[in-house]
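Re: the multi-chain job from yesterday

Posting the exact lines I submitted so nobody has to dig through the queue logs.
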Amino acid sequence: MNYDLKNLPERTTKPRQYGFTMAMDKGLSIREAEDFVSMCADHVDIVKLGWATSFVTPRLKDKLKVFKEAGLPTYFGGTLFEAFVIRDQFDDYRRLLDKFDMSFAEVSDGSIDLDHDKKCDYIAKLSEQVTVLSEVGSKDADKIIPPYMWIDLMQKELDAGAWKVIGEAREGGNVGLFRSTGEVRSGLVQEILTKIPFEKIIWEAPQKAQQVWFIKLLGANVNLGNIAPEEVIPLETIRLGLRGDTFLHFLGIEKKNTNTAPPFEID
Amino acid sequence: MNYDLKNLPERTTKPRQYGFTMAMDKGLSIREAEDFVSMCADHVDIVKLGWATSFVTPRLKDKLKVFKEAGLPTYFGGTLFEAFVIRDQFDDYRRLLDKFDMSFAEVSDGSIDLDHDKKCDYIAKLSEQVTVLSEVGSKDADKIIPPYMWIDLMQKELDAGAWKVIGEAREGGNVGLFRSTGEVRSGLVQEILTKIPFEKIIWEAPQKAQQVWFIKLLGANVNLGNIAPEEVIPLETIRLGLRGDTFLHFLGIEKKNTNTAPPFEID
Amino acid sequence: MNYDLKNLPERTTKPRQYGFTMAMDKGLSIREAEDFVSMCADHVDIVKLGWATSFVTPRLKDKLKVFKEAGLPTYFGGTLFEAFVIRDQFDDYRRLLDKFDMSFAEVSDGSIDLDHDKKCDYIAKLSEQVTVLSEVGSKDADKIIPPYMWIDLMQKELDAGAWKVIGEAREGGNVGLFRSTGEVRSGLVQEILTKIPFEKIIWEAPQKAQQVWFIKLLGANVNLGNIAPEEVIPLETIRLGLRGDTFLHFLGIEKKNTNTAPPFEID
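And the result, structure tokens for all chains:
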């Protein structure tokens, strides 16, 4: 940090198990990826190449190399997994992960109907090959999943081998965890956290108001995802109480809410 | 493409007569233009320097060179044409096109009142010098043009020598083809297509929901314009059914709707 | 400029006392900062490193150097000043300005409650060290300040030594001068201008509609702030009547409203 400020919330440092930021690249050029890591490598923990953008990305290997050399793991968005599965090309998908030397993969069912036992099978199989993130929640705004069901799905996917589970929100932040207006389904989040460990969940929160909401509820070290590259620095200031939105929050109640221990234990 | 996926909609390849993407540059630096072409040259067919941004752009010739060397034609936005015409400087405008070695130009009347015969005269004159794109529709949200009139204007401009006609939407996507909310005037679009050939129209569709709407109605190879540089890769995935929004659409009815032939013939 | 167009509104040139553009950097990389100055150095007068982003910015000195070499002064956002003051670290803040060789600073009370005499003391003290911009208006959407109060606060801060005063709007443009919808509180602006000199105020106006509103009311050479880097070129065209939004405005009434003299004199 460039100067000393007293009484800041304590942030976890890399490698982080929580306090984790997942950024979404939806088409950065090689040089833009270099620019991104030059600013954000310390503040980001993993980079998702959004949905199936990797399919139409030139010089994909060179781009992956930029992130790798900066110590940032990457993975292909879950929609790519689904695009292979719906075409009965799961084995091709596994070969693809090898070809690009990926160490992470996402398993999701945001666009397709996938029997949940079958989804857990995919998680289990891929877990032998890579570290798996699995995503719960539909991209379809009309598909409302009740809280007990979110909990059940998340727990089963963790049991099947997922390293962390992701709460779906899309790039726009208007489905899954959020109402179509972008408002957080707060009862849902709180109920999930009575059962699933805090550090095991990455909340997709692309909009600033959503990031602020999660940070106020769960502290500086909540795991957040789908962060646009240019929003990583702003997010880091929100986590630290150094932007208007959380400035007073962390000063007022910082000793109560922003300890580095996760606020919820595994039950 | 970086890997094989079965049953993708067939995309036209360059040089494209349809399936065309027009990107809008509203102030990229030289290096950002280089970054853009490094990622998007295969996915973009033409670049518009938005409205009169060229007036205040440093090193304009160097920027044009970047696009030219990547095989991307460029043109100045129609507002620049209008700025010259309203000042009685049309001859200066023609010299300007020569000075910057432009091979395309846009003729529009989005901000000024221009007698339509006079507009067609400009199209005819400029057609002797460059390839002309002409634009139909007002930038004024209160000016509603009925469908038969859109058709009449488009046909006359094509007859006068326009290579393609553009349906106006502005950078914001909230006028012309769209209601102020950004919603597509769908009856208008469908009525236009009963008379004007599919491949002759470029639809300005800067917002994702608009792109999705056109692609679902008209297939992967609809001509779309006013695409922000960072949205070119995402748009390409939408065209291919590789983003949530069109994922199921292309799987379900792909053999019926996404043939490479344009869905509407010249009448 | 790249070509001649008649009857454009006259723009002030650098160093500008009015017609001033303040851009906001919220996390540009070194190379992005270089790109920015390569396009915008002539069109921007000062760069703000938004709120406390400087705290988490790697290679901060290198970034400041890029702006300095382009002749662009920079300053740290007012939230950083507040972060030091609320922690009783004002002396550390003064040392920080020296350490980074800053010649400008912002004094604000957007996030904290600060007695106004005390705020004026800070302005007076910092004025001995640097050029001070002071900001009036709360970041809190519920805190409505009546016009006579804005005038009183602005006048006292100018008297205390502020070089210019800033009307608060945040990055989002939805508080202070603006209603939560982004609509301008127009009566407020007009009343302020009956007492405070035009050239002494920088209006934060991050949204295009807000920029257009101020330019239509106060002419091409109004001082505007919180402009995103990629909106500097577009803003310059709006000032010149070369974008649809102000195209007719400047043609129709240009001789009456866009003289280079500020429209309001110091009373």
